[in-house]
Amino acid sequence: MKINGSVALVTGGNRGIGATFVQALLDGGAAKVYAAARDPRKVTVPGAEPLRLDVTDPESVRAAAEQAGDVDLLVNNAGISSGATLLDGALDDWRREFETHVLGTLTVSRAFAPILGRNGGGGIINVLSALSWFSTPESAAYCAAKSAEWSLTNALRVGLASQQTQVTALHMGYVDTDLISHLDVPKSAPADIVRAALAGFAAGDPEVTADDTATQVKSALSQGVEALYAGLGA
């Protein structure tokens, strides 16, 4: 699918990777880009169409779909990182992670799938993570939610194939955004991640590993858990 001339909607389009997607799509010749956010007043990308959307609120999603009936490219980017740990993380935080990344992505995809179909099939990019494939106790809620979102992405790819909707999963390691500003680790530039995502999507790739971290983790999957988790094979 071509970016030039498309009508795109980016969830969480007011900051971080989402805002970078909005800018890159406009720069790539998209005819219109809806920057969806819970508070559309926080959308700052010039030329974007602010749109009120809370992915955890089905009524908000329904209203957004009614307003944006011309979309042919959906970027499911909205996300959170609660920091909920494995053994003592609050269950309410675990629920928030799943309600945002899994049920939120599902609700938005269900609402816009008929629109994409009517508009020729179009495409969906789901912003996932290398943590879709690798988990740590310290960020167990986020990892589990992203893993479930990866499974959902695969189901969407199969389920929407008959209407010619392309579904691409984006995986990457740490990216320099507000979401992980508290972590002192090497981070990729958001523009580099989005550039790789859109190039892979335009090429028809079902999955994009946008940095070395994602590439290495994906490669290790075929080698078993011992390759992913040091010490388990000892």
Automatic annotation (TrEMBL):
According to the lineage, what is the superkingdom?
Bacteria
**Keyword check for Endoplasmic reticulum:** no
| Protein's name according to its UniProt entry | SDR family oxidoreductase
* SUPFAM superfamilies, A to Z: NAD(P)-binding Rossmann-fold domains (SSF51735)
What family does this belong to? Belongs to the short-chain dehydrogenases/reductases (SDR) family.
Protein's UniProt keywords contain Oxidoreductase = yes
Which InterPro entries does this entry report, sorted A to Z?
Answer: NAD(P)-bd_dom_sf, SDR_fam
Family matches, as Gene3D superfamilies: NAD(P)-binding Rossmann-like Domain (3.40.50.720)
Q: Which UniProt keywords apply?
A: Oxidoreductase
